Amino acid sequence: MSEPLRQTQKPLNLYIRTFGCQMNEYDSLRVRRLLAPLGYMPVSDMEEADVIFLNTCSVRDKAEQKVHSFIGSLRRLKAKKPSLKIVAGGCVAQQLGEKLLDRFDHLDLVLGTRAVGSIARLLEKINETGGRAACLPDTDTREPGEDDRGIFADGSLTAPVTVMQGCNNFCTYCIVPYVRGRERSRPYPDILREIRLLEAAGVREVLLLGQNVNSYGRGLDEKITFADLIRRIAEETGMLRIRFTTSHPKDLTEELMRCFAQVGKLCKHLHLPVQSGSDRVLARMGRGYTVAHYLEKVGRLREMCPEIALTSDVIVGFPGETEEDFRKTMDLLEQVRFDNLFSFRYSDRPHARAASFTDKVEPETGARRLVELQGFQAAVSMEKNLAEVGRVREVLVEGPSKTSEARMTGRTSHNRIVNFEASPGICGQIARVKITGAYSHSLKGLLLAGASEGGPQPGEN
Ligand code: SAH
Ligand code: SF4
Ligand code: F3S
User: Fold this and answer.
1) Which domains does the chain have, with CATH numbers?
2) How confident is the model at residue 2 (pLDDT cuts 50, 70, 90)?
3) How close is the Cα of 98 to the center of ligand 1, in Å?
């Protein structure tokens, strides 16, 4: 952990806005860590910024439009403060490169998804020369020793750590493989070093990230699977909890499923995107599994770890999706009864094969299906939350709740938010909380006296 190098200078203000997924959240953290040694301190007010970093997402058309309108809205700030530098990173930056600079003349720097590690160098350069640039390298840039710098204790108890990047699956609707490149895993020693630094900075829960974590280890010199990675982190670090996302159903191994039963520190929650309940649609999406395969894996998981919480992603209105296909998706949701679901209406993405499929579904039909599906899921999620009432859960206490300083908030192993009365001294611990009430997106609880703990029970690892 290092202190900012230029302490004698006035701190520079860095404003970061992150769109999209947790991979982007992680890259935004990296940007913060990489710029800290240059004296950049994060601010929450955009008006005060010397540098604005936008981490962009391109996964659906709407996400991309949001980014364009946000960049457009910054024109006014730049006019008011010409020394302000505006940097766009992330997936829209990778997708459009120079075109983004052409489109927005108030944008100073465009950083492709593999260029995050160069941000400090590039920012210094444009600060000196006043020029504009787009940097889209073919390989990842990670400065030597990057992991050893800039990790400060900022009160966070949970931190993301990317373990693999990119994706080789090329699902026909998806832009990710084009903007994030081919799959590549980070060597275990790098991951371990980062987690240990996070631990020293007070982090207690690590979220391991990758577009397809099941492929972790491919291409590394060391022979290591994702399940090995989880077990080793559980054994070799002091993290109280381990989470991960995202898992592709076709690659979910028995070995990984077993971790849920055997590794006490691994949270009992799996995000397993199914996308559709129709084999015909799944095949056209190029997902590489059938509904029967998916259900078989869900059955195995529940056999091994009956309490596991399952969440998923679903796309409605994929090209050629008939009413019957959609009914099959609803049947699947009814059968599995996910704890929570992220659902989207299909949208065409550049490069993705499905963009050229000619049998597009009418937008109104897709919208209607989405409303029906979300209505159904809201009822299931509520029912699952209500079933928690009366149970005792272990909650990693994160801090005061949004609404009251006297109430603490945290998450259960199943990833449910629980609010309960307690003093802030309990932050960072795992508390035993009796669930007394349920809402659609959170639970209410009662702290069980004297029952807070520093971690999992003996015998678990
Ligand atoms: N790697 C993850 C998903 C990354 S994208 C996985 O394989 O599951 C997150 C979600 O966005 C996807 O699961 C999918 O449901 C949705 N999505 C991706 N492309 C989309 C598109 N073109 N239209 C609508 N939803 C899309
Ligand atoms: Fe996209 Fe499919 Fe890769 Fe997920 S697995 S990132 S949905 S191509
Ligand atoms: Fe979006 Fe890129 Fe993540 S497209 S979902 S920010 S990988």
Assistant:
1) 3-135 (3.40.50.12160), 155-386 (3.80.30.20), 392-452 (2.40.50.140)
2) very low
3) 26
